[in-house]
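Exam prep: given the inputs below (a chain plus pterin cytosine dinucleotide), describe the expected output before reading on.
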Amino acid sequence: MAQAMRPQMMGARVSRVEDPRLLAGQARYLDDIQVPGMLEMAFVRSPHAAAKIRRINVERARQHPGVHAVLTVQDCPVLLWERDTYKVGQPVLADGEVMYVGQPIVAVVADNRYVAEDAAELVEVEYQPIEPVLDMRQAIDEKPRRVHPDAENVFFHNEYSTPGFEEAFEKAPRHLKATFRTNRQTAVSIEPRGTAAMVDAASGRVTVYASTQSPHRMREDISNLLEIPEHQVRVIVPEVGGGFGMKANCYPEDIVVTAAAMKLRKPVKWVSDRLESLESDVHARDDIHDVEVAFDDQGKIIAIRDHLMADGGAYPAYPFSGAVGETSLASRVLTGPYDIPHLATTIDCTYSNKTPLGAYRGVWGPIASFIQEGVVERVARALNLDPAEVRRRNMIRREQFPYRNAARMIYDAGSYLESMEKALDLIGYEDFRERQAKARAQGKHLGIGISVFVEPTAMASSEAGSVGYESCTIKMEPSGKVTAALGLGPSGQGHETTMAQILADQLGVPLEDVVILHGDTDSAPYGGGTGGSRSGPIGGGAALVAGRQMRERLVKYAAALLEAGEEDIELGDGKAWVAGVPDRAISIRTIAETAYTNVRKIPEGLPIGLELTARYLPKRPVTFSNGTHIAEVEVDVATGIVKVTRYAVVNDCGRLINPTIVEGQIHGGVAQGIGAAVLEALRYNEDGQLVTTSLLDYLLPESTDVPRIAVEHLETPSDGEGGIKGMGEGSLIAAPAAVANAISDALAPFGSFVDTLPVTPKDIRVMTQQK
Ligand code: MCN
Ligand code: SMO
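Solution:
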């Protein structure tokens, strides 16, 4: 069959079809959902890190005018608990005790949010505070106490070592030690979380509007937890204004809102405010790593030992703890793009009286990169070698692919060294040392930091916590216009554009003839949703497979109707024609009309209509993207303020569907990476109070904190459908390490290294006054 595909949309810089509505304020988010008679919910949340609840009195709240219901755990006795994996679960409303500040205790449903909040203030809760568990290292030693009396504080422990590790480590001529600390951060989506639920009086079906990345999993969770048959639940995901991993969970509020709507038989909505977000959205990256490295005089790294610790918070987030995700996957990519033969890891994830830990863009990646790139930087300085040269000496080379790393992960082909060399050119690494020396002579501290990264994408194994495959249902209407539904849950990644690009090529129709649907479990085929940088490679793969099957059907029609051989048919520009004879053509519209309305003419063996569903499960359990980020910074040693002045990225995510979208993803990730490196931290005081409860305390990067970012692409295709690899997390995986290394480089005259993220002005003043 001829493969002409004109115009070629895959790889084209198509403007996002989502943007007009998003930029003009026309998009409908969860809080825009309005239904007559809709009630709103507010929560009474714990003001204590740890306390017994002696008594709850909701009578005054119940009496308050405009209040429809006040719910406690007795009204909604549901436990968010993955029983096969964890010893404890979280009651959706506190049951006799509170375990973290912000934990929901009572839900008030009222005419509107104002009334609900006023009534919530009338709820009386008598607490008996207990000593909170706040320090990760102490918690591992069961000090000052157990968080949950029936479960050890360490809820996940794992040990791994390559054979012969100890001997190789001991024999190495040189060693260094470092402790790396990443502080708690969270996604801070512009649109906060929210849920709205309603019951159809006639059918009894429950419709839940949810701001989630995973429509089908949300339906499953609601169905299982509230014991509603799955076909009686419909989840609809409106526009999602950012998820970043944080909207991958099912939260207590999702269940309580749905339970209230079922109980009251009225629509109920809850939307988080910023304070609630900061204390009740999953947190991430609360990790400590005690690292030891063995290397030789040439800078070849021989072995890394890491004790990985993560503070998982009071309960495992549902259905999966981010602490386990962060550590177990970090431990498997800790050697990054380097050929390091020996690795020994010990993992301890512990409970504390803090908000549960979940996912935030990159999950394990930013931590693994911070460590692996920090190690390279330290080896270089110990040997007085150029950090780029140490990377060259350790880098996995093209001829080693497929490469099995020390943790037995298989890396498919990538452009590790090429990406670094190209990025060094892009930033002008050659001249930097001269510029740095001149600046130093004037008392200015410039630094440059390299971060070469690997990004595991498109996880298709059961370990990824997702179904692995994705589905695509194509419907070509009698007019030849196309809708295609996927199980994805985009929150700004531009899937309506990229999936349409793939299908337009396959079906030979203009891009505007393809509309992508998602986020309604009644119409979208079952799928894993969006996360783990899977939608491009796996969702796009499903679109490719479905598109190809539909294309084959269209070709059969054209061949029959044009009385030509299938192998001679070409598709494009909304028509099919016989190769070399452009006049012997038939429009896609005529084919589609035939398929639905002139059905006696349907070629033998083809079904009526043009509708099909295809699924795609990649053969590889994971495909690795890669790239290099280089940051230049200026550190003001008097104030401790860091300015990122220049930035270059070379990214390789296999075949590009849309370079503009990929670059947008990179820009956003670099901005978040700068936040992760120098600004963002959730801080608790010694009583376990969250003290960063507004965006005045939790500092986000602003446009003035982000320099122009130069981006170039390399394309090492995967061996999966379309050669597409994922990329949605790579920029936040690489950026914090690049900025941290740049700061370390700037502060080299003080003998300092960044070992904590974020590194604050105060930290920098300490680092520069040590000597
Ligand atoms: N793409 C492409 N060519 C490729 C690979 C990807 O054109 N070779 C396109 C894809 O079609 C998609 C985008 O780039 O439009 C990102 O693709 P992918 O890497 O597959 O990631 P996902 O679409 O699955 O998005 C998830 C990823 C994750 S895991 C987080 S967390 C994150 C991120 O995306 N959350 C985001 N980027 C985000 N961007 C926005 N605006 N909002 C979020 O919540
Ligand atoms: S943290 Mo992204 O949703 O895998």
